[in-house]
Specification:
This protein has 6 helices and 8 strands; from the N terminus they run E-E-H-H-H-E-E-E-H-E-H-E-E-H. It is of the alpha+beta class. Helix 1 (17-24) packs across helix 3. The radius of gyration is 16 Å and the shape is globular. The two termini are 29 Å apart.
Length: 184
C-alpha cells in the first residue's frame, strides 16, 4: 500500500462499483479522461474486475474518511525488451470533480511516480491527455513531464475522433525536479 499525508493508494474493491458507476455516467469524465460509459451496476462490477486484473491499478482514497476519490494506473507500454519498453510505463489518472484543485492529484502522482522509478525501476513514464484537458497538462508539466507529440486518432481509424497530447518524464528529469523541490 502506498500512502502520503492525505491519501492511500489501494487495490480497487467490489465495494467501489457504485462510485465507478457514478463516474461512468458523468460525461465530464468521458470528456476529460476518456473514462468509459457504464450503463448500470453490473457494468461497474465488470469494470472493477478489469481493474483488479491489472497489476498497477489503484484507487485513490482519502485517509480522513476512507472515501474513494479517484483512480491512478501504470500501464505497460509494450513487452519489447530489446527496445527497452519493459522499463517504461504509461500513467493514467482520474479524480472525482468534487476534489479538483486541492492538490490531491499532485500528491497522488508524486507517490506513483516515486513508486515507478524506485520500486519498479522504470526509466521513463509517459502520460497522454486529451488536447482539451489543460488542467492535466499543467499538472504534468508541474511534475516535470515535457510535451513530446500529439496524436490525431481520427487519422488512424474512423472508430476514434479525438487527439491526445503525450508527455514524457525520465528518471533524470524526476531526480532534477526533486532536487529543486528539496532546495526550495
Amino acid at each position: 500500500m502506498l500512502e502520503s499525508k492525505r491519501i492511500v493508494l489501494r487495490n480497487i474493491e467490489m465495494t467501489d462499483a457504485p462510485i465507478l458507476l457514478k463516474w461512468g455516467q458523468d460525461s465530464i469524465y468521458h470528456k476529460s479522461a476518456g473514462y468509459q460509459y457504464l450503463e448500470d451496476l453490473d457494468a461497474a462490477k465488470k469494470s472493477v474486475l478489469q481493474y483488479q486484473n491489472r497489476s498497477y491499478s489503484y484507487g485513490i482514497v482519502l485517509k480522513e474518511n476512507n472515501r474513494l476519490i479517484g483512480l491512478v494506473e501504470l500501464y505497460e507500454r509494450g513487452l519489447d525488451e530489446y527496445n527497452g519498453l519493459l522499463m517504461t510505463k504509461d500513467l493514467g489518472f482520474l479524480l472525482d470533480k468534487d476534489y479538483w484543485h486541492q492538490g490531491l492529484m499532485t500528491e497522488t502522482l508524486k507517490l506513483i511516480i516515486n513508486y515507478a522509478f524506485k520500486d519498479l525501476k522504470q526509466n521513463q513514464l509517459w502520460a497522454g491527455t486529451f488536447v482539451s484537458n489543460t488542467n492535466s497538462q499543467k499538472l504534468l508539466k508541474k511534475l516535470g513531464f515535457r510535451y513530446v507529440y500529439t496524436t490525431d486518432y481520427s487519422a488512424v481509424t474512423s472508430l476514434f475522433n479525438y487527439q491526445e497530447k503525450y508527455y514524457l518524464l525520465t528518471l533524470q528529469d524526476w531526480h532534477d525536479i526533486m532536487q529543486i523541490n528539496m532546495k526550495s
